[in-house]
Design goal:
Strand order of the largest sheet: 4-1-5
Structural class: alpha+beta
Helix content: 25-40%
Oligomer: single chain
Largest sheet: 3 strands, antiparallel
Low-confidence stretches: none
Shape: elongated
Length: about 90
């Protein structure tokens, strides 16, 4: 079988991975994407240059959300506190 050369995840799966990576255990979180924009004159197919916009993806991350939506992830569900940590938190 051929080795995979590409893996794709949904927005919710990406949020889940970042929640676990950042060790977040509470709150609703959603994916954010920050774009940049630049202008340039670009020649398409050897023709005359035309004004064009270049929109790079600068950052991808997660941000806390107030309301649940189809794109939010509940950190308490996907990355619950371990039982020992819950006991310590309750003892405070």
């Amino acid at each position: 079988m051929a080795e995979a050369s590409q893996y794709v995840v949904s927005y919710k799966e990406l949020a889940e991975v970042l929640i676990k990576r950042e060790n977040i255990h509470e709150g609703l979180w959603g994916v954010i994407v920050r774009f940049g924009i630049q202008a340039a004159n670009i020649s398409l197919g050897g023709g005359d240059p035309i004004p064009s916009a270049i929109v790079p993806v600068l950052e991808i991350g997660i941000q806390r959300e107030v309301n649940a939506t189809p794109l939010t992830v509940d950190a308490a569900v996907v990355n619950p506190l371990p039982a020992a940590a819950k006991k310590k938190k309750g003892a405070k």
